[in-house]
Write a structure and sequence with these properties.
- This protein has one domain: Alpha-Beta Complex (Creatine Amidinohydrolase), CATH 3.90.230.10.
- The protein contains 4 helices and 11 strands, in the order ααβββααββββββββ.
- The strands form 4 sheets. It has a 4-stranded mixed beta sheet. A 3-stranded antiparallel beta sheet has the order 6-9-10. Strands 4-5 form a two-stranded antiparallel sheet.
- The longest helix is centred in the first third of the chain and has 21 residues.
């Protein structure tokens, strides 16, 4: 059985995620690069964690690169109309967090808004339906069925989420073939996304404590699309 992390320890790590997203909302501009975004995130994580042992890793993918799901920061310069995915895992002490937000440079297009709404509905379905005792692959099946019903079949090739704790990615995961059941006391993520190769991608991820009575959202940070729209 995977080692478990306390919700309090995960929340402490999540303080750095919050600081990183705040820094990007304040500092991102058209013309900056993915590497510039990385510098903003690194400084924010360092400030949040102070002298405590810490590290971070993540995906920094903007523009058409966001449609390819993941990748390290490059010299790609953000343009008006771009989406930018920051999937950020932070280790503070011995415990990891793992969240994702998608930023938009300028007013999101109707296609981007429609896809974002679908991603948010996927996350809401997980919040409503996932409980201790659920079979993990059934979560993936439910989300795939929903996406297919609204015209997005095959647009989310990765898992729906996974456990976190002493490692940033732990099993069981919400993916096909994982017949494990979710245990009370675990901390898990839900990270639905939609990806349109050569165009844009969207992913939103939160961390949750699995209690006997249900789920507790550990990252009370906005998810509204307009909150993550960079306007100049």
């Amino acid at each position: 059985m995977a080692a478990m992390a306390s919700p309090g320890d995960v929340r402490r790590s999540l303080e750095a995620n919050r600081a990183a997203y705040d820094a990007l909302r304040a500092g991102l501009r058209v013309g900056m690069t993915e590497r510039d975004a990385y510098v903003l995130v690194a400084a924010a994580v360092d400030r949040a964690c102070g002298c405590e042992p810490h590290e971070f890793m993540g995906d920094f993918v903007g523009g058409a690169r966001s449609g390819s799901i993941e990748g390290p920061p490059t010299d790609y310069a953000f343009r008006e109309g771009d989406a930018f995915i920051l999937d950020l895992s932070v280790r503070r002490g011995d415990v990891w967090s793992d969240t994702c937000r998608t930023f938009f440079f300028g007013e999101p297009s109707p296609r981007q808004r429609k896809a974002y709404d679908a991603v948010m509905e996927c996350q809401a379905r997980c919040e409503r339906n996932v409980r201790a005792g659920v079979r993990c692959e059934d979560v993936k099946k439910d989300i795939e069925s929903f996406l297919a019903s609204i015209g997005y079949g095959g647009k989310m090739p990765h898992h729906v989420g996974h456990l976190i704790g002493p490692k940033p990615y732990m099993r069981p995961a919400f993916e096909l073939g994982d017949e494990s059941t979710l245990k009370s006391g675990s901390v898990c993520t839900f990270e639905p996304g939609l990806y349109f190769e050569g165009d844009f991608g969207i992913r939103v991820e939160n961390d949750y404590f699995v209690a006997e009575s249900g789920l507790e959202n550990l990252f009370d940070y906005p998810r509204d699309i307009d909150f993550f729209t960079i306007r100049q």
